[in-house]
């Protein structure tokens, strides 16, 4: 995807600001990820870590609807990651979790 090919620090900052505005403007978020080896993939983890900037002062995601979709091979791991995501969205982000879907199998 071209939008993730950055050449300068300024273009990186502008791209992050653009994605941040999209997240803030959305009525709901669907967070999807896969479980390659007992934990969520790096791209999804990086997105979730960005959420800190939304909550650390003004809790900008409070009340936003969120759903998760996860895929992986181990049912126990899928359940554990789903529970961790539910706790993060409810307790840290104060978002309204409206559903979680898991798909067992290769991504």
Approximately how much helix is present in the residues? 40-55%
Low-confidence stretches: none
Known CATH architecture: 3-Layer(aba) Sandwich
Structural class by sheet pairing and helices? alpha/beta
CATH superfamily: Flavodoxin domain
Biggest sheet strand line-up: 1-2-3
- Radius of gyration (Å): 15 Å
Topology:
Elements: H1 9-25, E1 28-35, H2 42-50, H3 52-55, E2 65-72, H4 75-92, E3 96-104
Parallel strand pairs: 1-2, 2-3
Descriptive overview:
The chain has 107 residues and is α/β, with parallel strands linked by helices. It has one domain (27-104): Flavodoxin domain (Rossmann fold, 3-Layer(aba) Sandwich), CATH 3.40.50. The protein is 45% helix and 23% strand. It has a 3-stranded parallel β-sheet with strand order 1-2-3, with helices on one face. Helix 4 links the parallel strand 2 (65-72) and strand 3. The longest helix is centred in the C-terminal third of the chain and has 18 residues, at 75-92. The chain is globular, with a radius of gyration of 15 Å.
């Amino acid at each position: 995807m071209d939008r993730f090919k950055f050449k300068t620090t300024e273009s990186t900052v502008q791209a992050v600001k653009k994605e941040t505005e999209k997240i803030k403007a959305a009525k709901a978020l669907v967070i999807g990820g896969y479980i390659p080896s007992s934990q969520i993939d790096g791209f999804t983890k990086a997105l979730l870590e960005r959420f800190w900037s939304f909550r650390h002062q003004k809790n900008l995601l409070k009340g936003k609807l969120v759903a998760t979709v996860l895929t992986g091979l181990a049912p126990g791991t899928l359940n554990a990651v789903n529970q961790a995501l539910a706790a993060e969205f409810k307790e840290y982000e104060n978002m309204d979790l409206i559903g979680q879907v898991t798909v067992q199998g290769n991504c």
